[in-house]
Specification:
Largest sheet: none
Helix content: 55-70%
Strand content: under 5%
Structural class: mainly alpha
Oligomer: single chain
Shape: globular
Mean pLDDT: 74
Radius of gyration: 47 Å
Number of helices: 97
Number of strands: 0
């Protein structure tokens, strides 16, 4: 009991493993109860017992084992992990359960096995059970047979694989145990129920008595097929269907049995047989005896072979030599007995090998067909059996050429047997394997034999035609029977009814339509209600023979073909008959006046004629009579062009409306073609030709037109006829055109003396090239070089274009006919090359040539290959019959000489182009051997093999390569090179297929073995191929195929399948449905950068706008909108708006055109609707939430070396709610073409969805980082194109990347800096330049520093170059606090092994040296002597000018070759030497030619710096007080100005100072200022660049001397700017962008804490400069610049309130100047800028941000303009789109409503008083910018002093002092107070706002607070007038 108490305390799983059987029994019992209680099949409890289940069934104690079996059965039934235990458990059941004496144990063991089968593990169960059959214990064998029988009975032959069971049946029948034999007999009976007679061949060799017993048992079985009683877990829906069917049918067995018969699987007996290897059993002397002269020896050899070929299934091998020998016997042996035996051998081989024998079919079929001339029945029968067996191994397409070749044989027996062979072969065909293109060829040949004199030939032809009709249906054959007598047609139909197809296949009629003999309009109308009534009428009248009453509207090519023969036999009518028929339908007056001598009467008659034709019913038009009547005198010699035009119009109308036959067409074609070259009638003549072509088909009409045109000898007619033909081919399509005749006519045209004819011929060739492709050029290689270059140029124009969809000829056919026409045209378009004439080269492939190719001497082999290449080159296009060449070339593919292998591959490529689609019949014999080349270890040989393989696939299609076992056999070979190349090839080809043959599944086991291959490349390629295989086979089928794998392998493969399931590509849509949309000239693929359609828009852009280049260079349709944001003038803006409107109109027109072409294509329309709408969805706070989740580590942080699957899945989940579903499919597709398409879509929607794009920006950037890890260059280039457009849009939107967005994108962009392709690196560099404008350079700097640590030398070099660029542009600011550390890391790369890295590091250090000078040596630390030497040398060379010195200049002394090490330790000495050299060079070479022109767009915008308030100064720095520089006058030429400007922006202080001196000298001389015209923007940008450099220098300046140098350069820049502003009208040329940057820099300088001293001369100069700038610059540009600056300051989160306040002060200053500047304002542009501001910042948004004063400032500007201009201001809103919705218009209307115009003197006086008070209240504001320089803080300014200052100012600037003197002022406030109190800026602005409101608004009851205006006292008006005059003069001066 103690022991019991111990194990009873154990948990259940431990009890199950206990050594005491009672404990185990208790454990099994508890486990059983526990298993029954668990309801979740995925519960973790199941996993605890996964390793114990085997012990449950193999327990040594019988009692415990019984309970363990019960528990195991429940476990297997319910546990989700049970499938992992199948192997060990079933093995245990077989070994430890089936040998038990208890029946219950065996029953439970059987149930466990069947349950495993139910949970999809039948293969493993069957494998273990079959192993049990070999057990020596008969009880186990018996039990295993019982399990197999029950499994087959319950699950059926679909689930249980019968082949291995059938294989062991004979062995079971020989068992010594009777019970086993009896059970095996029952198993055989059960199997027979499911596969019937397919079991017989496998059991033919068993005991005859036993076989007889089985036959008796089989005879007792019911005829109905059995049904499964048990289903797999995945088939539960099928189970429910069966149960429901059983309930419905009840006891009625008829319907049930029929259904079951359909679902019973068809098992091929061949599959159940074991293949026999016979090649090794062939007698060694076989080939000698088969060539012996004695027939007895030949017979002996053949009989030995015949015995071997009787095996029903043969092992595949090399049977080429045997087939060659048999072919020779059949073709050349005179002994008919031997021919018979050889034919039987062929039959046996073809039957035993089946599809694998197809490679030899092309050699045997011609020989056998030709041998049918033998008359002995025994021989003929053997030959029939042989060719039938051969046919089953190949396709009708492959042997069609050989069969058609003997159809014209003179021997009637050959023709009869060929037709009979076709009849038998057709029985095995389907409508798919017997396409129209093939059917046409056979029907034409058979119809010739229908009229043969031999009755046996006729009967055979009838039977063949009837069989074809049975297969494809009457509707497909009827077009070819239009010219056949009714009796013969009836006989063909009679034969068709008697035919029984092989295997009970359904005919086309059974599949598509019901076989009704007559058309039923009502049935069709009900089935297709959308079809117009006309189509039904056409269908009804079409079958009627001999009547021309059917409407001729349906002139589709197929329709024309049906009526072709009928129309061609129309008899020609005489002129009298024509007049009689015409008189019945035409007015009498018309008939009388047709031949009148008066042209006006003839004109009236033709008008009546035309009107009568248009009013006639379609079926009543006598076409021939009417067109022949037109020839009545004067007929076609008509001299009046108006009458002639009407005649041509009548011809077109008759051809379009009536039943226009070829006879009618021939009556008028001569005359119409003659008029094509007429200037006045040519257009009408071409329209008539098109109408005739629509009625009589284009191929026939074109042939007639060309022949008649060239017979007339008129070059004008010839040229115009060819032009019409070019256009007609585009309209009608190329199907059916006689290419050979066309080429001959074109060659004639090319040889014409008239240049117009040659030009037209070349244009026609270009059109033909779109349809025929490269083979067309081969016909013209003999032309002259000049002509050939013209042809090549024309081909290059249309290269890559898709042929347009036919728009004429198919619009009036019925719906069904239209579908057939599309199918036929698709086939014709695919096989256009078949239309070319081909040469039969079989007679040139001599036996000597073949023997040379197989010679032992490699030189002989090469000679033979050269001869083959020569034959192919000479023939150009060849027929598929190439004699014994395939076998010879096949041997050379395995040649030991790799040069010969490559030459053979080259020949095969040449053969592919020459043979065209006929190459299909050689795929088995010569195509698959190409794959053996892929086993070669040399890359060049494998590359040549792949190129050859692709060339073949291009001609044959993929279907031929996927059918059969050949591909799987190649993949089975364990060669790593073959596997990786073949898998990569399949992965690229399979996604483009719409369907794949079922034989593709044969490759799956080998694909799984490749997943576990030792070679990593093979494994990688296999993983890449998984989605492509899954696309065609499905996940379930591939998952089921893993059952045969080992458990460890299976888990790995299943995981890879699950992974591949997510990236499985979608199957491409049917080309017939998408062709119309794609063939309209609007391609879905990426178009060239600039199309012809967009060219006019670009030409209309203004000149300045054309200079502005988008960084991304996107599509032309975005050009106008991008340029609009950068426009430099209001004129540019208006033009760009118009261009945008035109561009939008053009796009909408294009879309409408595409939509029009897609009418009737419902799937395309649906797809278009699905892809409509926005692509990005705005999720409120979506981006913030994603950032929050990543920071809190709820999701993975976007940081990886290579993207893992979990990152991709996470991104996909995040993008689902934000991205359109259809775009998501393209974004995460495995096909790179889908990625390119998705990026193109994103580019198209970027403009319209800018806001949504910004909301999803983090996700978009993350997705593009994934693309950076792809190797496809096309995707990468498209991605970079989009990113450039995106960042340009972000720049225009003033958007700045967040830290989250930048950190998840920039590191991966930097990785692409190391891309080996130069074009990619170039785009990445341009993208980095854009990146600086949306993300601070100082934050990009650390990422670049990390990039310099890469192992990729190109990446290190690019990062160092970018670092140097940042340092050169932004100075030392980019380093932040890490200058020393960063420069040390950069300097380390000076010693790098890579030259590019060394140079980049040196350049970066030199750039830093140019910014901060000698301090660089302190920052970079200690360098090695070698590195320091290189740096010193680079510094010396960096100071040299790149331009060559003039010849007159003496050569400079070269620096020493080596630098002393002591000098390296004293950089100051070296630096001083360098600087002295630089100064000497500048003095000697003052005239340096311009090396570059400064690009102002290169200068980066200045970021606002948060600094304190604007300071006020006590004095006004007049121009007298400015610093002056007495520089030497030196301007020799205008071209040197560009170099001077570049010097101004130089990082070197002295160079910049010299440039500023020269600029100052130029600006001081009135005569030389004109050279600066047009360069103002460049000069200002250069000065701004220098100010930026000065800001960085100030941070690193050492001591007072360094600070003094910086201040000196500051003063020089400010002085030069002041001179530029005062230099006449030059400043008016400044653009708004430059002005904005200038104001921003000046205000930032004023707010600089280091310059904040009130007494600073620099700040005072800046105040004067800014005040003068606002006064003198162009007011429109100034206001635009200020509004844009105010907008940026409000949007920026880093901008200080002080800076924003200073910008508003500038606005108030401009508002004050408005009355004087209003005439120079371009109001339209100013109002547009105000509109844009209010659109970006609505009033509500401003109030929320506490920036209401900003809004009031802009509003005050608008109201002031309204007050000054008046109501006419409403006429200046032209640039605002949707002006009715604009806030500007509402504000203007409100302002005009509240404004009362001043009409009296009193109001004017009041206005003057208001101005005086305004000036008085602004005195404190103006004191900071206009205080006189000479007035100290304690002085009192008197009127006399003011008058004296006015006089001085006038004298200085050359103004007259003759003005009336100003009286002294005795009272009133002084202009400048002695020490004015400095109120806050906000107070001053509030005061100014309220004051302006008083003068602008009327007291009309509105809630506007007004301040009372005190009347002026004393002489105040005089003082105010004086002050106003003074201020105006000073403002003009500044």
């Amino acid at each position: 009991m103690g022991d019991d108490s111990e194990w009873m305390k154990l948990p259940t799983d431990q009890k199950c493993e206990h050594k005491v059987w009672k404990a185990r029994l208790s454990g099994y019992t508890e486990a059983l109860q526990q298993f029954q209680r668990i309801t979740d099949d995925k519960s973790s409890e199941w996993g605890k017992y996964q390793g114990l289940i085997k012990k449950f069934v193999t327990d040594s104690n019988a009692v415990a084992q019984l309970k363990g079996l019960e528990a195991a059965l429940v476990y297997v039934e319910n546990a989700h992990v049970a499938s992992r235990t199948v192997g060990e458990v079933v093995s245990g059941v077989v070994c430890k359960v089936f040998n038990q004496p208890k029946a219950r144990a065996k029953e439970l063991g059987t149930d466990i096995c069947l349950m495993y089968t139910e949970i999809e593990k039948g293969e493993v169960v069957q494998e273990e059970i079959l192993k049990g059959l070999d057990n020596k214990n008969p009880k186990i064998a018996l039990a295993c047979v019982e399990v197999l029988r029950r499994a087959v009975s319950e699950f059926g032959s679909k689930i249980i694989t019968l082949k291995p069971i059938v294989k062991v049946l004979p062995k079971l029948f020989e068992s010594r145990e009777k019970a086993v034999r009896d059970e095996a007999k029952l198993l055989a009976v059960e199997i027979y129920k499911w596969i019937r007679d397919a079991l017989r061949p496998a059991l033919q060799n068993i005991n005859s008595v036993l076989l007889k017993e089985l036959e008796e048992e089989w005879a007792k079985l019911p005829a109905s097929a059995p049904r499964p009683s048990r289903f797999l877990r995945s088939q539960q829906d099928l189970r429910a269907k069966y149960e429901q069917q059983q309930q419905v049918d009840g006891d009625a067995g008829g319907g049930d049995g029929a259904d079951l018969e359909e679902e019973a699987p068809a098992v091929d007996a061949y599959e159940l047989l074991e293949a026999v290897e016979i090649l090794s059993k062939i007698p060694k002397d076989f080939y000698e005896k088969i060539e012996a002269k004695k027939w007895q020896e030949r017979k002996e050899a053949l009989e030995a072979l015949e015995a071997l070929t009787k095996n029903p299934k043969l092992v595949n091998g090399e049977y080429g030599d045997i087939v060659k020998a048999l072919n020779k016997v059949i073709g050349k042996d005179t002994n008919v007995m031997l021919v018979t035996i050889a034919a039987k051998c062929v039959t046996g081989l073809a039957t035993g090998l089946r599809k694998k024998f197809g490679i030899y079919a092309g050699h045997l079929v011609p020989t056998i067909l030709d041998k049918f001339k033998e008359k002995k029945a025994q021989v003929v029968q053997a030959l029939q059996e042989a060719i039938d067996a051969v046919f089953l191994s190949t396709t009708l397409q492959n042997i069609s050429e050989d069969v058609l070749a003997v159809m014209d044989n003179k021997n009637p027996s050959v023709k009869q047997q060929a037709s009979m062979f076709l009849s038998r072969g057709f029985r095995h065909c389907t409508p798919t394997t017997l396409p129209k293109s093939l059917l046409k060829s056979f029907c034409v040949a058979l119809l010739k034999q229908v009229n043969d004199s031999a009755p046996e030939v006729r009967d055979a032809a009838f039977e063949a035609l009837g069989t074809a009709m049975k297969v494809v249906g009457e509707r497909a054959v009827n077009p070819f029977l239009a010219d056949v007598d009714k009796l013969k047609v009836d006989k063909i139909k009679e034969c068709s009814e008697k035919v029984e197809l092989a295997g009970g296949k359904k005919t086309a009629g059974q599949v598509k339509e019901k076989p009704v003999p007559k058309a039923e309009p009502t049935a069709e109308a009900s089935a297709r209600p959308s079809a117009p009534p006309k189509k039904t009428l056409v269908k009804q009248s079409a079958p009627k023979k001999g009547k021309a009453t059917a409407p001729k509207g349906g002139a589709a090519p197929a329709k024309a073909k049906k009526a072709e023969n009928k129309e061609s036999v129309e008899s020609e009518l005489s002129l009298e008959v024509c007049e009689e028929q015409a008189a019945m339908v035409l007015p009498a007056s018309c008939m009388q006046m047709l031949d009148s001598a008066n042209w006006k009467e003839r004109l009236a008659a033709m008008e009546e004629f035309q009107k009568a034709v248009e009013q006639m019913d379609i079926g009543e038009i006598p076409c021939q009579a009417l067109v022949r009547l037109l020839a009545k005198k004067p007929g076609w010699k008509e001299t009046n062009f108006q009458v002639m035009q009407l005649k041509l119009q009548v011809v077109a109308a008759v051809a379009q409306r009536g039943s226009f036959s070829k006879t009618s067409a021939l009556a008028v074609l001569d005359a119409v073609v003659e008029k094509t070259g007429d200037v006045k009638c040519g257009v009408k003549a071409k329209e008539a030709l098109s109408a005739i072509a629509e009625a009589c088909t284009l191929p026939w009409t074109a042939e007639q037109v060309v022949s008649k045109a060239f017979s007339q000898k008129n070059p004008k007619n010839q040229a115009e006829a060819l032009n019409w033909l070019s256009n007609a081919i585009k309209e009608f399509g190329f199907a059916g055109v006689n290419v050979k005749a066309f080429i001959n006519n074109v060659k004639t045209s090319l040889a014409a003396t008239n240049p117009a004819v040659r030009t037209s011929a070349v244009s026609l060739l270009g059109v033909m090239y779109m349809y025929m492709g490269a083979p067309l050029r081969m016909f013209f290689e003999d032309e002259k070089a000049s002509l050939l270059s013209q042809i090549d140029s024309e081909f290059e124009k249309v290269k890559g274009q898709t042929p347009p969809a036919p728009i004429r000829g198919s619009s009036k056919t019925s719906a069904e006919e239209e579908a057939d026409d599309q199918e036929e045209e698709a086939e014709a378009g695919a096989d256009v090359v078949d239309l070319l004439p081909r040469t039969n080269i079989s007679d040139r492939i001599t036996s000597e040539m073949v023997s040379k190719i197989g010679d032992k001497n490699w030189k002989q082999r090469k000679e033979g290959l050269d001869e083959v290449a020569a034959v192919l080159s000479e023939a150009k296009f060849i027929q598929p019959n190439i004699a014994e060449l395939p076998l010879a070339l096949r041997g050379r593919l395995a040649d030991s000489n790799k040069i010969l292998v490559q030459q053979t591959l080259s020949i095969l490529q040449q053969m592919a182009i020459a043979m065209g689609p006929g190459l299909r019949q050689h795929v088995r014999g010569l195509g698959f051997p190409i794959l053996t080349v892929l086993t070669d270890s040399k890359n060049t040989v494998r590359a040549a093999g792949l190129a050859t393989l692709n060339a073949w696939v291009e001609q044959t299609g993929m279907k031929e390569w996927l059918e059969g076992e050949e591909l799987s056999e190649e993949l089975k070979k364990e060669n790593p090179f073959l596997r990786q190349e073949l898998l990569a090839w399949l992965a690229s080809k399979l996604p483009s297929l719409r369907s794949a043959p079922s034989d593709l599944a044969l490759c799956v086991p080998h694909l799984y073995s490749c997943l576990e291959d030792r070679n990593a490349d093979v494994r990688k390629k296999a993983q890449d191929a998984l989605p492509a295989f899954m696309m065609h086979l499905g996940f379930d089928k591939m998952n089921k195929a893993t059952a045969k794998l080992k458990p460890a392998s299976k888990d790995q493969v299943v995981g890879l399948l699950e992974k591949a399931r997510t990236s499985m590509p979608a199957k491409p849509s049917a080309p017939a449905k998408t062709a119309p949309a794609a063939q309209n000239g609007v391609k879905a693929a990426p178009s060239p950068p600039a199309s012809d359609k967009d060219a006019p828009d670009m030409e209309h852009l203004p000149a300045e706008a054309k200079k502005v280049k988008s960084a991304a260079a996107p599509k032309a349709k975005r050009t106008s909108q991008e340029l609009d944001s950068r426009a430099n003038s209001s004129l540019n803006s208006s033009l760009e708006k118009e261009n945008a409107r035109l561009s939008a109109k053009s796009r909408s027109h294009t879309k409408a055109k595409i939509g029009k072409q897609a009418v009737g294509k419902k799937p395309s329309v649906k797809a278009e609707e699905d892809r409509s709408g926005p692509i990005f969805i705005v999720m409120p706070n979506g981006k913030e939430q994603r950032i929050k989740e990543e920071k809190s580590l709820k999701v993975l942080k976007w940081n990886f070396i290579t993207p893992r699957e979990e990152f991709v899945e996470q991104l996909k989940i995040q993008m689902v709610p934000c991205v359109a579903k259809w775009l998501m499919e393209d974004l995460f597709h495995t096909d790179f073409q889908k990625h390119i398409k998705a990026i193109g879509t994103m580019i198209e929607h970027l403009e319209a969805e800018t806001e949504a794009t910004v909301c999803c920006l983090d996700l978009i950037l993350k997705w593009f980082t994934l693309r950076f890890f792809e190797t496809n260059t096309s995707v990468l280039m498209k991605a970079l194109e989009y990113l450039k457009v995106l960042f340009q849009t972000l720049i225009n939107q003033d958007y700045h990347l967040t830290e989250h967005e930048a950190s998840s994108f920039i590191p991966y962009l930097i990785l692409k800096m190391g891309e080996p392709k130069d074009v990619v690196r170039k785009d990445v560099r341009s993208l980095c330049r854009l990146l600086r404008q949306v993300y601070p350079a100082s934050r990009i700097f650390p990422f670049l520093m990390d990039g310099t640590k890469s192992k990729n030398s190109k990446q290190r070099a690019e990062c160092l170059e970018e670092l140097g660029s940042l340092v050169g542009m932004c100075g030392m600011l980019v380093f932040q606090q890490t200058a020393a550390k960063s420069l040390r890391e950069i300097a380390v790369h000076i010693g790098d092994r890579d030259t590019a890295v060394r140079n980049a590091a040196l350049n970066t250090v030199v750039t830093a040296y140019n910014v901060c000078g000698e301090q660089v040596y302190k920052l970079i630390g200690q360098l090695s002597e070698k590195d320091m030497s290189m740096l010193e040398e680079r510094l010396k060379r960096s100071v040299k000018k790149p331009a060559a010195l003039p010849a007159s200049k003496p050569p400079e002394d070269k620096p020493p070759a080596s630098v002393n090490a002591t000098l390296l330790r004293k950089p100051a000495t070296c630096l001083s030497e360098i600087r002295s050299q630089n100064a000497a060079m500048q003095q000697q070479n003052s005239e340096v030619p311009p090396v570059f022109k400064l690009d102002p767009k290169f200068i980066v915008d200045f970021s606002p710096i948060p600094m304190p308030d604007l300071v006020k100064v006590d004095s006004d720095l007049s121009p007298l007080d400015l610093l002056h520089y007495n520089f030497r006058h030196h301007v020799d030429s205008v071209c040197s100005i560009d170099l001077v400007i570049s010097d101004v922006a130089s990082p070197d202080a002295k160079t910049s100072m010299q440039g500023l001196k020269r600029i100052a000298e130029i600006l001081r001389h009135d005569g030389e200022r004109q050279v600066m015209s047009g360069r103002v923007d460049e000069l200002m940008a250069a000065m701004l660049q220098q100010l930026r450099l000065l800001a960085s220098r100030r941070m690193v300046a050492d001591g007072q001397s360094g600070q003094r140098d910086v201040d000196e350069l500051y003063s020089a820049v400010i002085s030069s700017l002041n001179l530029l502003i005062l230099a006449g009208k030059l400043v008016e040329e400044a653009s708004p962008d430059v002005l904005k940057d200038l104001v921003q820099v000046l205000l930032s300088l004023i707010l600089d804490p280091q310059q904040s001293s009130v007494e600073s001369p620099l700040i005072r100069s800046v105040h004067v400069l800014l005040s003068t700038l606002l006064k003198t610059a162009d007011p429109t540009s100034t206001l635009s610049a200020l509004l844009l600056l105010l907008q940026e300051s409000c949007k920026s989160t880093t901008c200080s309130s002080e800076f924003r306040e200073m910008v508003m002060k500038c606005h108030w200053r401009m508002i004050k100047f408005l009355p004087e500047k209003v005439e120079a304002l371009y109001l339209d542009r100013v109002l547009l800028d105000i509109h844009n501001f209010m659109k970006v910042f609505p009033k509500e948004a401003i109030r929320q941000n506490s920036n209401e004063l900003v809004y009031r400032t802009v509003k005050t500007l608008l109201h002031t303009l309204c007050r000054i201009v008046g109501p006419k201001i409403m006429d200046h809103l032209s640039l605002i789109e949707n002006r009715n919705e604009s806030e500007v218009e509402a504000q203007l209307k409100r302002a005009m409503k509240n404004t009362v115009p001043a009409q009296s003197q009193t109001s004017r006086n009041t206005e003057n008083v208001g101005k005086a008070k305004t000036l008085q209240s602004e005195s404190t504001f103006e004191s900071s910018t206009k205080a006189p320089a000479g007035v100290s803080g304690n002085e009192t300014v008197t009127p006399a002093q003011l008058q004296e200052r006015l006089r001085v100012l006038r004298e200085i600037h050359g103004l007259s002092n003759s003005a009336k003197p100003v009286n002294k002022v005795q009272c009133g406030p002084p202009v400048v107070s002695s020490k004015p109190a400095l109120p806050s800026s906000m107070d001053m602005l509030h005061s100014k706002l309220s004051h302006l409101c008083e003068t602008r608004e009327q007291q009309d009851g509105q809630n506007v607070q007004q301040q009372s205006t005190a009347p002026p006292a004393g002489p105040l008006p005089d003082l105010s007038d004086f002050i106003a005059r003074l201020e105006r003069i000073k403002a003009n001066l500044h």
